[in-house]
Amino acid sequence: MSSSTQDLTPQLHLGNTFGALFIGAACAAILFGLSNIQAFVYFQMHKGTRISFLKLVVACLWMLDAMHLFLVVHCIYYYLVTHYADISVLTEIVWSFKLQIVIDVIIVYGVHLWQGPIKNPSYNSGLIVILVQGSLSSYIPLRSIFKFSSGVAIALIWAVYQCHVFSDLIEIEWATFMALGTITFVDFIIASSLCYLLATSRTGFSR
Description:
By secondary structure, the protein is mainly α. The chain has helices at 3-8, 18-45, 53-82, 87-90, 95-118, 142-161, 173-200; strands spanning 127-132, 135-141. α2 packs antiparallel against α3 and α3 (53-82) packs antiparallel against α5.
């Protein structure tokens, strides 16, 4: 290690950058452990049944979650172990950082698609029914929402892959805010529609 690098090393403050990434990776590992338990319990409860589409969805989501955690760990290992105190490398964006965003998009889109038209037969018409003043007078086309979210996801991935150093991420804040806003909006629509379906599916029998 050169003397110039040794002089710069004490001036590094990684607590609010890579330190935050390390804490996030630890939390992600905990949540992945919970996902493992849920997947194990699910397959144990249905081990006597044939392979179904729902089983394939659970398996695919589990594998994507495992891949996401692997990429996050690789990103941390690359910066904090392989290239420890290498000032020039700390400013560059490693390939695993970009790819984990792609995996994120696939997971979120897959969950939204499963919770929407695939899981709920009443969505086959491509419409989410919203109750307005006691009548079914307002409709939101579900397919249009998913097409819009797909466009936002593609825009986010494209913007991230145009960045080569972390300072470039400041210039694509619009993509990050748009993606997070779209995810929140779709979650709200799906949750609202599920609440409506549960409320209108009451049998009328009290406990």
